[in-house]
Amino acid sequence: MRLHYRLAIGDAIKLVALGDDTLNLRKNDFCILRCPRHEDYGRVLAVGPIPEGLETNDLAEVKRQATLVDQGKAHENRVRSKGLHRTADELIRQHNLPMRLRSTHLTFDRALLILVYTAPGRVDFRALLKDLNKALSVRVELRQIGPRDQAAMVGGLGSCGRELCCSSFLTNFVSINIKMAKLQGVSLNPSNIIGACGRLKCCLEYEYDGYRMLLRNLPRVGSRCECQGCGGKVIDINPLQQSVRVVLDDDRVVTVPLDEVTISAP
Fold this sequence. Notes:
It is a single chain. The chain is of the alpha+beta class and 266 residues long. It has four domains: 2-66, no CATH class; 71-145, 2-Layer Sandwich (GMP Synthetase, Chain A, domain 3); 149-211, no CATH class; 224-263, no CATH class. 26% of the residues lie in helices and 31% in strands. It contains seven helices and 13 strands. The protein has helices at 68-95, 126-136, 147-154, 165-168, 178-183, 190-193, 208-215, and strands at residues 2-9, 13-20, 30-34, 39-48, 60-65, 100-106, 112-118, 139-144, 224-227, 230-238, 243-248, 253-257, 262-263. The chain has a five-stranded mixed barrel with strand order 1-2-5-3-4. A hairpin with a 4-residue loop joins strand 10 (230-238) and strand 11. Helix 1 (68-95) packs across helix 2. The radius of gyration is 26 Å and the shape is elongated. The N and C termini lie far apart (56 Å). 22% of the residues are buried.
């Protein structure tokens, strides 16, 4: 049986691969994988069935679990990549490009050097790439990452007091928008909704589907209704308690369960 693997390669690279279930790999195990043009070493983040509709033609292949000898070679590559990082960083400064080198990864077979960088926009690095290939004597690939990936690399504590989700357990990022915060009634104060990366917090997505389900049967604020034998208007709703707050026509303000409220036809 074929399985779907999420892997961490180096400090800043995550990818998906396929492999047989006979490998018996678990989370945090190290493995050797075959990519289209090189061989690499990675750590397992998650293992599961292959998602429906996933295009598998160009995915990497997990070959085997890493041995102690493999781990020793991977350590040597990490040490070597530090020297290559310094050389690449100096060349970037010489070319005066608006980019910052964040991580350098030398693949397991030493056939490819992956330079991970951040930049405010697109960077024309064609001239730099030529000099890098010449100076480092290895094929070089430049990859740009965003603020979320950078935060995952650096790590830290969130406003909740716990380790950042992106650096502790998240294996991929979903699209987050301000609608998620509004629907959950979260204050739009930047300190409440902006994460360490400067983008909307990933945790705004965790309970979004649950709130959407809870809000299905609740009336809109401003709707006319009847409860306790009197007409009124909905002024607030509580999705978690499935209750509504109503100002009655006799000026009373009451909070009642949803099943005790009759919504008037518009």
